[in-house]
Design goal:
Structural class: mainly alpha
Shape: elongated
Largest sheet: 2 strands, antiparallel
Order of helices and strands: HHHEEHHHH
Distance between the termini: 32 Å
Strand content: 5-15%
Number of helices: 7
Domain Transcription regulator PadR N-terminal: 14-88
CATH architecture of the largest domain: Orthogonal Bundle
Protein name: PadR family transcriptional regulator
InterPro entries: Tscrpt_reg_PadR_N, WH-like_DNA-bd_sf, WH_DNA-bd_sf
CATH superfamily of the largest domain: Winged helix-like DNA-binding domain superfamily/Winged helix DNA-binding domain
Organism: Microbacterium enclense
Strand order of the largest sheet: 1-2
CATH topology of the largest domain: Arc Repressor Mutant, subunit A
Amino acid sequence: MPEPARLTPLAVMLLATLREGDMHPYEMLRLLRDRRDDRLVPLQKGTIYHTIARLEREGLVAEVGVDRDGNRPERTTYRLLDAGRDAVDAWVRVELPQIDRPGDFRVALAEAHNLDRDDVVALLDQRRELLLASRELHREGLSRARDRAVPHQFMIEVERQAVLLDAELAWQDSLRHGLATGTLPWGVDGLPHHHERLHVSKETPE
């Protein structure tokens, strides 16, 4: 299994999508777009095909069939391997506690449902310690600047970051409470009804 750091956020999302069933890359692209996951990672057809090819070379996915519909180009269907499943979990475990890579954190948060509830709580607790330390650092900096009578216009960015850290901590504490108490449904078993992926019609053009 590759080291988690070798996976790009896009690779993580493609691997996680294959947990729902075997798909060809264009179906993955349509599914991610339907779910508006382009908010998290750029979704470009060429990059997705390139990424899937790399994941196959690294033993994280495997080709399971090739089909052709009329005159349309052949479509290769891929399956997630155990190594790919483990790689996603390992990447999420690395990125979920972090506070200095917000883009990666958003992807890790989006895929956190693949981990057990208690594991996510523990990872968020690690992140909370980092958030608290960062907030304290900002507060100390603001206090020193005010003691030195630093003009207000030079402190607005630090003030903004302090407010954002307060909001982040409040949001995360609410999330943790829902996970720890069980009031937040979690994982596939927590869905209110059987959830099926958004199928893409074979008539959709390449």
